[in-house]
Amino acid sequence: GLGALLCADLRLVGGGGRCAGRVEVKHEGEWGSVCSYDFDWDAHWATVVCRQLGCGTAATSSPYAPFGQGTGRIWLHIFFCRGQEETLQDCPHFGWGQHYCGHEQDVGVTCTGEPGQAGGLRLVEGSGPCAGKVEVKLRGQWGAVADDTWTMEDAEVICQQLGCGSATKAYIDGSRTGSDDGPVNVVLVNCRGHEKAFWECEVRGWGPYSALHDFDTGVVCQGFSRLVGGDGSCSGLLQVRQGRAWTSVCEDGVDLNAARVVCRELGCGSVLAVAGPGLFPMGSEPQWDTGFECTGTELLLSACKRRARSTQGCSGQASIICSSYGGFRLVNHSSHCAGRVEVMEGGTWGSLCASAWDLPDAHVLCHHLGCGSASSVPPGGSFGSGNGTLRVDAFGCSGTERVPSECPVVGLGDGCRSGGGAGAVCSGQCRAPASGGGVRAPGAAVGPVLCAPVSAVHPHGRGGGARTRSRALSPSLSPPGHLSLRLTGGSGRCRGHLELLHNGTWGRVCADGTSPATAAAACRQLGCGDGGSLGAAPAPLPAPAWLAWVRCPDGARSLWLCPSAPWRLQPCAPGGDAHVVCAEDGAEDALTPAPGSSCPHGGACTGSYGAEPCAGPAAMRVPVSPAPVSP
């Protein structure tokens, strides 16, 4: 049984938490205090107490009953400790029950560590922060709570301490039967249900123990917040728990940061709107009496600070609209940076129809997954179509959003007409698909490759490369060599706004998302030295913005070998034109081939491996405009 794990019992009582209070030990089934004369007293053995309880080191201690006098037995009279003992009972004492001091010398200790104030309680392996197995942090390590008589009273204290409302379920899960999955930090808990914190409950043993996980405990809480009255659980009027009842929140008590926390807590992705009154039917619940002051990063709304509301009355109830998408991923590939697009909705993963999926959508997804930028969008079904019905939502990403859930979404109706699931290949590390349909740099063998950026995909998909939904620039779109790139508006040709020639028109590069190394690459390509600085400055004359999010790596020698967002026709944001100052003025260089290319300054060949003339940015691609989508 779990009782066999307990070799010594020690606790601190009367201090408002388990890491501060009067020192008590348990002997022969009975708790009793510990006393000491002041001339015997040494702070070393207070450190033994704190270390044994997993509470850090001793902050303060006293042998003058600072937390009140005990009323029962005095079990130990300690007269010496070195400070290195494993347990308090290892320190020299007069024997169990033998003492020459009274309760007025009951020792009290305050330790530096209080798990309840340091995020020392959490729920894991559940559907969210308010459900799962209980873990407690001791001595810097998370471990399970084991109990063979786990009750709803125990679960209630856990849920209330975490700000998750009331408990709806208490369970014991012994599915982890090994002892290699972390320690058991707490065993045998007895809560009455009214305690303010788990540490105030009676605990038989504080570990860590190298024990089997046959009695790991878990809870399911009702949650602190919910959205009601909308279409599903991700939109509606905001309600929060007050005791065991739901209450509504006035609209002036919630801002965008609070809405972000609510959407995250409910697994509903990003916030789309903090809606005004009248959008959802009003409820008759009592009103929450304060507002919420959040940073936007909290896991639970209950973790936000409370603030006074700006008005006395309540003109309307707060309502929030979240994205229904709780997550995004790429599957059915050996790398997480390529594969079939899946989205989570309502707690279930499903594949996305390829009919309206394009390169800007893929770029946002790749950036969100930490996989760089999008290299290509393979044809529908290239990575399979998954199980079940394909979702037919159209993401209208511009390419600059942080996460796909920030993009406008339009439903396309029933049925997927494209014939397959949407896919994406990002510029992170990946492997070409077994069918030979992946991306490939010209001349590279099929196999493990560093996924090429958009610019390195062969323009015609030859030699095993994938055909994408984008088309490469032809020679008529840009003149050869470095003349398709320039810096204008500066004191010389090596400083100014970065411009590209496309379709006979010079356009700018937006500073938004463009890497500092891009400036150095442009300077090298122009023969203006080996470095440069990137800034953002408004240009004197309007011009289209051809590119944004140009992500040249360090050492790149040509813009044409750098990944970027798709070509765009709208101007940059005000003041957001890329401005470059090169390290040198530089003389005009001869047109010399870039490393690994027979074309000057990184230009790409438009035919089969150098059989035809060189073009400019052969791999910066113009997205094919999708067919109009009816709302």
Structure description:
By secondary structure, the protein is mostly beta strands. It has 5 domains: 2-113, Mac-2 Binding Protein (Roll), CATH 3.10.250; 116-221, SRCR-like domain (Mac-2 Binding Protein), CATH 3.10.250; 225-322, Roll (Mac-2 Binding Protein); 328-431, SRCR-like domain (Mac-2 Binding Protein); 476-615, SRCR-like domain (Mac-2 Binding Protein, Roll). Strands 7, 8, 9, 10, 11, 12 and 13 form a 7-stranded mixed β-sheet that branches. Strands 1, 2, 3, 4, 5 and 6 form a 6-stranded mixed β-sheet that branches. The radius of gyration is 33 Å and the shape is elongated. The chain starts with 8 loop residues before the first strand and ends in an 8-residue tail after the last strand. Residues 1-8, 114-119, 429-483 and 587-631 have low confidence and may be disordered.
